Each structure stands twice: as C-alpha cells, then as structure tokens.
Amino acid sequence: MHPFTYTKAADTREALVAGGRGGRYIAGGTTLVDLMRETVERPGALVDISGLPLREVTVTGRGGLRIGALVRMAEAAAHPEVRSGYPLVSQALELSASAQLRNMATIGGNIMQRTRCTYFRDVTAVCNKREPGSGCAALHGFNRGHAILGTSDSCVATHPSDLAVALTALDADVHLLGREGERTVPFAEFLLRPGSTPNREQAVRPGELIIAVEIPAHPRPLKSGYLKVRDRQSYEFALTSAAVALHIRGGVVREAKVAAGGVGTVPWRLPAVERRLIGGRPSDGLWAEAAEYAADGARPLAYNGFKAELLKRTVERQLRIVGGTA
C-alpha cells in the first residue's frame, strides 16, 4: 500500500473542499481499501465521509424511496419500506457479498465499486481501466466471467453490483453534490459503457459526492424480485442475474421493468423483453417468448458463450417467479 493522507470530514462542506483538492471519498472502505492493498488504486489522500448525515431512508411522492448514500447495505435491505415496497432491492442487497461486508458497505460505495475482473486486479497484466491504452488482457485471455453485452475492443469487464441492476430496472436517480450545488443523474446514465475510455466508469465530476439514490413511485400493485445465478451459493459474483418488476392489473401486464446483471459492462436493461411483456396475459408462454429477446446484441467471447442461453433461462425463470401464471 502506498502512503496517503487521511482526513475525516466534519460536514459536507469540508468533504467537498477536500474532495475538490483530489481526495478520494471513503466510507465503508470495503472496495477501495482492497484495491489499495493490491496497489491497483493509489490515492494520495483519503477523505472519510462516514460521519456525514446521509443515513436516512425516506418515502417520497406516492411511494418512491430516497436512500441516503451512507445507509449500510444491511440497513437498506432490512428497512420495512424497502422490503414492502421494493423487495427487488432487498433481495439484490441480501444476495450481495457476505453479511460482514453488508454491515459495513454503503449504498453509495456499492454503486461506485469497480470490476472484479482478475486482469484489472492483477497489476502485472495489461488493462485499459488501470492504464489507458495498454490493452485488454481479458479479450483473448480466460474470459468466462466477462461481459457479452456492452463490450468494446478496449474492455469486456462486467459491472459487479447486484444493487445497480435493481436500480437500473426501477429507473432510479443518483443525487450528487458538488462545489456548484446539487444535480441529479438518471441511473441509466450514471454508469458508463467502456467504449474507448474504460477508465471512466461513472458520470461523477471531480470532487462530487453521492448523497442519495432515489427510486421513483411506480404503479401499484407492483410485484418485483431479483434472481442471481452464480457458481456457488454465497459470496460469489453473478454469472447472470435478472431484476424484474411487473405491474399486472385486470389480468394484463401494464408495465414491465427488466434488467440483467453479470452479462454486461454495465447493468443491462432489456427493453425488447419489456415490450413483449406489455399487454400480454401472464402465462408460461408469455414469459418464455419474452425471455427469447434477453440476449439480443450479445457478443460472446471464447469462454463465455454459455451466458447468452443462461441469461434467457434466468430471465424466463424470474418472470415466472414474479409474475406467476394465469
């Protein structure tokens, strides 16, 4: 680990001043500290924001939720408003990491976490995320766990967050605070596809601080859930996952929100699946037909071609679990 300075911010003003000078924000530290130990990250200054008043979960509008950036993952998963209104979010959180990590990690830190690509974390391997222009070892390496959607010639790493898949499906927003004030970024635009600049992963401006994520109100009744498929039952990242939210009224699917994880360089929204669902009547046939569109545009690599079929099956299974049958 390389030397660094440490500052504990007393309030948001102090945090923004330190962040504006190049300090890296840290709260739970469950990702950043690991990367510092591996010398993948080498910040010269850390700004501890764990004492800031960003720990509330509040109901907004007609049933939306605003979750403070420093709410712990375990706290958010157990919160009664989250569990009752958006079980999709609770399930995504509970299927993430270990209980110990969920007790430490924050909501803001979770959506800022970096890829688990082994080549990114191996400082002896070439990686455009670590060193722009150096190359991507995963393109022609062992890429079983890598992305099949949203890839480029510069990067094929998946985004690891389960929560981010749920927030993508639910059309969430991210609230950011900077020296020039507060702004809001739709979650669909917050995490960036790699393109030719995979080192730029989020739409966060220098010195900005995440203060909350907000889920808008959705039509009721809303049935939702999260399914994660992985090599082992616990403490493992997704090979694929499906976040599903359905508004079914009068025996017809009126609204459908579907996103996938473990297969994209960012959490991957599935609009073709959603379009096939809307107006249909819940049935095994509808779920199977819609799921056939889940892997549209996939570009499998040498070792992860199985993910396209696995994604379809995962989406179909989760549609059946959430939507039931007529």
Automatic annotation (TrEMBL):
<dbReference type="InterPro" id="IPR005107">
    <property type="entry name" value="CO_DH_flav_C"/>
</dbReference>
<dbReference type="InterPro" id="IPR016167">
    <property type="entry name" value="FAD-bd_PCMH_sub1"/>
</dbReference>
<protein>
    <submittedName>
        <fullName>FAD binding domain-containing protein</fullName>
    </submittedName>
</protein>
<dbReference type="InterPro" id="IPR036318">
    <property type="entry name" value="FAD-bd_PCMH-like_sf"/>
</dbReference>
<dbReference type="InterPro" id="IPR051312">
    <property type="entry name" value="Diverse_Substr_Oxidored"/>
</dbReference>
<keyword id="KW-0560">Oxidoreductase</keyword>
<dbReference type="Pfam" id="PF00941">
    <property type="entry name" value="FAD_binding_5"/>
</dbReference>
<dbReference type="InterPro" id="IPR036683">
    <property type="entry name" value="CO_DH_flav_C_dom_sf"/>
</dbReference>
<dbReference type="InterPro" id="IPR016166">
    <property type="entry name" value="FAD-bd_PCMH"/>
</dbReference>
<dbReference type="InterPro" id="IPR002346">
    <property type="entry name" value="Mopterin_DH_FAD-bd"/>
</dbReference>
<dbReference type="InterPro" id="IPR016169">
    <property type="entry name" value="FAD-bd_PCMH_sub2"/>
</dbReference>
<dbReference type="Pfam" id="PF03450">
    <property type="entry name" value="CO_deh_flav_C"/>
</dbReference>
<feature type="domain" description="FAD-binding PCMH-type">
    <location>
        <begin position="1"/>
        <end position="220"/>
    </location>
</feature>
